[in-house]
Amino acid sequence: MQVTEINKNPLTRTRFKFVCSKLPQCTYFCQTVTIPGIGLGEASQSTPLVDIPIPGDKLVYEDLNFTFVVNEDLDNWVEMKNWLDDAGYDSTLGTDNSPWAELFADGSIVVLSDKSNPVGVFTFEDMWPTSIGALEFDITDADDAVVVADVTFKYTRYTYKSI
Predict the structure, then answer these.
(1) How would you write the chain as a 3-class SS string?
(2) Does some domain include residue 107?
(3) Per-residue pLDDT for 79 more than 80?
(4) Predicted confidence (pLDDT) per residue in 88-113, tens digit
(5) Cα-atom radius of gyration of the chain, to the nearest Å?
(6) Contact present, 92 and 103 (Cβ < 8 Å)
(7) Neighbours of 27 (CB within 10 A)
(8) Residue 88 lies in a domain
(9) Is residue 81 part of a domain?
(10) Number of compact structural domains in the chain
(11) Within a domain: residue 127?
(12) Domain ranges, residue 131
């Protein structure tokens, strides 16, 4: 009989890294991320006495949200804003010269072990930003608090793979 070793270490909330080819400046500045929930719609089978719920045929993915620290020269915020600008205004959309595919990128959340080794990867396919939050400056802060920005992405689907 083969005995399988069980990993008894808990998953730590602070061990992850965000990676996206369109956002290289954000890789080491991501502070929080929420892996989106997934729902399966439902249909209803009518019967004379009661409607019976049955599984639907479409998955519904929640948005991908994360918060990143804005670096001092705002490079990471600017690359995020430029991506959002490109997605929001493109005079060539709907023409033969449309760079539609260039508006999407795959992104990954690499989950790290307590020793900072990769243990798994969430891959978000064909993602694009839908919003970037406001930058808040406050001269009354006693500390040198860092400026952060919230970002929301849509995507077609995501997968998880253990490493």
Answers:
(1) CCCCCCCCCCCCCCCEEEEECCCHHHCCCEEEEECCCEEEEEEEECCCCCCEEEEEEEEEECCEEEEEECCCCCHHHHHHHHHHHHHHCCCCCCCCCCCHHHHCEEEEEEEECCCCCEEEEEEEEEEEEEEECCCCCCCCCCCCCCCEEEEEEECCEEEEEEC
(2) yes
(3) yes
(4) 765 555 555 556 677 899 999 999 99
(5) 21
(6) no
(7) 14
(8) yes
(9) yes
(10) 1
(11) yes
(12) 16-38+54-162
Of 124, 120, 123, 122, nearest to 162 by C-alpha is 120
Contact 29, 69 (CB under 8 A): yes
| CATH code: domain of residue 158 | 2.30.110.20
How far is Cα 92 from Cα 133, in angstroms, rounded to an integer?
Answer: 27
Q: Is pLDDT at 29 greater than 60 in this prediction?
A: yes
Burial of residue 74, with CB atoms counted within 10 A of its CB: 0-12 exposed, 13-18 middle, 19 or more buried: middle
Lowest mean pLDDT among 9-13, 36-40, 116-120, 123-127: 9-13
Q: State pTM to two decimals.
A: 0.82
**Inter-residue contact 66 to 30 (CB < 8 Å):** yes
d(CA 129, CA 77): 12
Q: Pull the structure tokens for residue 148.
A: 């952060």
Distance CA 81, CA 155 (A): 17
- Length of the chain equals 163
